[in-house]
Design brief:
- The structure is a single chain.
- The chain is mainly β and about 130 residues long.
- About 0% of the residues lie in helices and about 60% in strands.
- It is built from no helices and eleven strands.
- The strands form two sheets. Strands 3, 4, 5, 6, 9 and 10 form a six-stranded antiparallel beta sheet that branches.
- The chain is elongated and about 45 Å long.
């Protein structure tokens, strides 16, 4: 069985990306995931994105998505660093792995956040919504 994993990242907008459906966003679709045991983990490598609000680099994100199979089920884990580049603002990234969802925030413009990790969650669809408020 060929299963394709999807990663979608948006800056300041919300999209839905599922297997086989393309959305208007910065999207990276990885190759077919190997079927393996939980001990075999593959990661996509670190990627960076930022938001541009009125021509400014207001929020930044560096992320890495890892994949594994456990008892025949696909699982994903996301690690993120956030940058808040504007004072009195709060950078956030909303991470969704299938139906699991969590929002990470960071509000220190002096340096980036510590590494924040979602842990492993069932699913092969990952969505990252980056923004600032």
């Amino acid at each position: 069985m060929n299963i394709q994993r999807r990663i979608a990242l948006t800056a300041g907008a919300t999209i839905l990306a599922t297997a086989g459906v393309a959305a208007p966003a910065v999207e990276a679709a990885a190759a077919v995931r190997p079927t393996a045991t939980a001990s075999s983990v593959s990661c996509d490598g670190w990627k960076s994105r930022r938001t541009d609000v009125f021509g400014t680099n207001s929020a930044g994100l560096k992320f890495n998505v890892c994949w594994r199979q456990v008892n025949g089920k696909s699982q994903a884990s996301v690690a993120v660093y956030l940058w808040d580049n504007r004072k009195n603002k709060l950078a956030f990234v909303n991470v969704t792995i299938n139906s699991w969802e969590h929002t990470f925030t960071w509000g220190n413009s002096a340096h980036h956040s510590p590494k924040m990790i979602t842990g492993w969650h069932n699913g092969d669809v990952v969505r990252l919504d980056l923004g600032q408020y």
